[in-house]
Amino acid sequence: MKVKIDKVLPIVWIVVFAIAFLIIVGRFLVIQITGEVAGVDINKLADEKRTNEYSIPAQRGTIYDRNSMPLVQEHTVYRLYAVLDEEYTSDPQTPRHVKDVEKTARQLAPVLDMDQSAIAETLNKGINEDRWQVEFGESGKELTQQQKEEIEDLQLPGLYFEEEAIRFYPNGMFASRTLGLTNKTDGLITGISGIESYYNEELTGVDGHISYQRDKFNVKLLDPHEIVQEPENGDNVILTLDQKIQTLLEDSMSEVVENYNPNRISAVVMNAKTGEILAMSNRPSYNPNNIGSVTNWFNDAISTPFEPGSTMKIFTLAAAIEEGVWNPAETFQSGSYKAGENISRIDDHNNGKGWGPITYLEGIQRSSNVAAAKLAYEKIGPEKFLEYLQAFDFDKLTGVDLSGEVAGVIQYNYAIEQITTSFGQGTTTTPIQLMKAATAIANEGKMLKPYIIKEIIDANTGKVLQEGQPEVVGEPISAETANEALEVLETVVTSENGTGFNRYKLDGYSLAGKTGTAQIPDPETRGYMYGRNNYVFSFLGMAPAEDPELIMYVSVKQPELKPSEPDSAPVSFIFNNVMENSLRYMNIETDQEKTKEIPIVQVPEWKNKTTKEVVKQFEAKGINPVVIGDGQNVVNVSVEAGSEVTSHQKTLILTDSPKMPDIKGWALRDIMLLQSLVGFKMDWSGEGYVISQSLQQGASISSNDTLTIELSSEVE
């Protein structure tokens, strides 16, 4: 029996192994034929395991000014990480992981501005936890190209970089509240305010993707089966903002902040003929590249309604003229006015003293509250006056293409509100609403919608997808009324009785406008604040007065005024400086130029010619050019060939050896022409014409230089 068992066992084992072998082979055959295990496609699984697939971020669209100067753009930064796994190194002679923790920490510390011990702790913790790689927190993110190159120059093994995109604002605080901010979540940049928010969908592109096969060390195979789907970048947005006018505004506002420490400033510059916003800014502001502490995120010019004060009298005046009840020679008793027994008395701004019996024309010039109240309440009538307020759209959003607009409210339930609205108290509005209403005064009765988008362009094809156009949104008054209102408002700055006399004036240009001194509501007393500085001082002006090209509004809240200073000082500094230089920059004819017959000539071709040839050609046409430098060949000219200029227009010829000319007596617009040709940086103070320059005549100049100039309205 024992012998039989000994003979049978080998046979049994052979059979068992044979069956197991057949099962295994059969299983292999089934897997080979079907390519599946437990319902899982093993070929697909293998591809997934050895395939890297990731998205290629689309570039967010660039925001430009009207002259294609970039204001906001995508900027590449770098995120640093360190590989710790020794298996990533295939050749010990060229390590690809961090070998020396202390050396790496010591040399990285000054570049990342981190403590050496903190870097070493991060690396050692990663090694102890058997991690493949580690990062360095906020200090290792958003590294600049320079920081990346400094780290690469250290030649430390195991350090690598990932590219990241951020929004970069090359001009810092420039129009920051208008341009807006973005937020980044999971690599996606999203607009949260301003243009960035309003046109977020257009600016955002469509990500692409790439896939390829790699080994376990994440190294691409020789035959990687790479598939690439290119991204579609976001559309580019071109604004109506003009960088030079905006810079004028920003610099002027910054100087007022430094000298007067106001609570807030808002200002807007608009093309009177189109409604295009050429500049818009607020204070306080912030640098979007380094936000720091921000107490107010709103764009006050469109988002913060307030009681405007006497600038509202512009529209009370226009309504009276349109209704035929304006008689500039008619007199009234100034000082105070009580419209009825149960209606509170209102006073003129000089504590109710007034100026005795004066004409309505003098009342507007002196900014008499009584004059405005009597015009609105007695002569026009409350119901009809409300119709004019609504016709000027003071109860509506302007529809400006910016996020966060808030409309003011017409407070008109009681008689006293109907009276105080006529001089800008009680009823609230925003600067952009005032600007929109003012276009009807400046544009022969046609009220224009303000807009800030010039074009939206497909970044991939260059096709114009959207184009801003002037849009007439109402005609609250006639052309005759508008022209008469301009004539009256011009006397506010030309008459000795005017509140703008000797305060608001432009060298060479006539000006029409209205001052404003608005009281500030006091939440504690439910009345108004008192004290010389507790007002919003403002001015709304249009120039040239007879046919305005530009409208500008400036308001300064609670500036710290010296006892000897007029309350208009901070407002007039901003307005006069920006308005005058903007008109000159835009080549708007001065009043003197309009009265002279100045010949217009066509600029000859100047490209690829010597300096002598070009100068000779220009002089033959009656153009006396300023030659920049002593080079033999012309590099650029401030006017295009074929364009038309006057013999009085300053024309600059840049040679291939540029030297600084004597610019004393030049206007700021001419300096800006020189800057655009050479590319140097520029700082200036004052207004008017150049009286001193930091780069002396005859010195070599280039784009690396900075020119500092001082301007004065009194040139020797």
What can you see in these coordinates?
This protein is an alpha+beta fold. Helices cover 31% and strands 23% of the residues. The protein is globular, with a radius of gyration of 36 Å. It is an enzyme of class 3 (hydrolase). This is serine-type D-Ala-D-Ala carboxypeptidase.
Helix/strand layout:
Blueprint: H1 2-34, E1 36-37, E2 40-41, H2 42-49, E3 51-56, E4 63-64, E5 70-83, H3 101-112, H4 116-128, E6 133-135, H5 145-153, E7 159-168, H6 176-179, E8 182-185, E9 188-191, H7 194-198, H8 200-203, E10 208-213, E11 227-229, E12 236-239, H9 243-260, E13 264-271, E14 277-283, H10 300-303, H11 313-323, E15 331-333, E16 336-337, E17 346-347, E18 357-359, H12 360-365, H13 369-380, H14 382-391, H15 415-420, H16 431-442, E19 447-448, E20 453-457, E21 464-467, E22 472-474, H17 479-494, E23 512-519, E24 521-522, E25 527-528, E26 535-543, E27 550-557, H18 569-585, H19 591-594, E28 600-602, H20 611-620, E29 626-628, E30 634-637, E31 644-646, E32 652-655, H21 668-678, E33 681-686, E34 689-693, E35 706-712
Parallel strand pairs: 4-12, 29-32, 33-35
Antiparallel strand pairs: 1-2, 3-10, 4-5, 5-6, 5-7, 8-9, 10-11, 12-20, 13-14, 13-27, 15-18, 16-17, 19-22, 20-21, 23-26, 24-25, 26-27, 28-31, 30-32, 34-35
Helix pairs in contact: 3-4, 9-18, 11-13, 11-17, 13-14, 18-21
Short characterization:
Pfam families: PASTA (PF03793), PBP_dimer (PF03717), Transpeptidase (PF00905). The protein has 716 residues and is of the alpha+beta class.
Characteristic terms for this protein:
716 residues; alpha+beta; Penicillin-binding protein 2a (Domain 2); Beta-lactamase; 4 domains; 7-stranded mixed sheet; 5-stranded antiparallel sheet; 21 helices; membrane
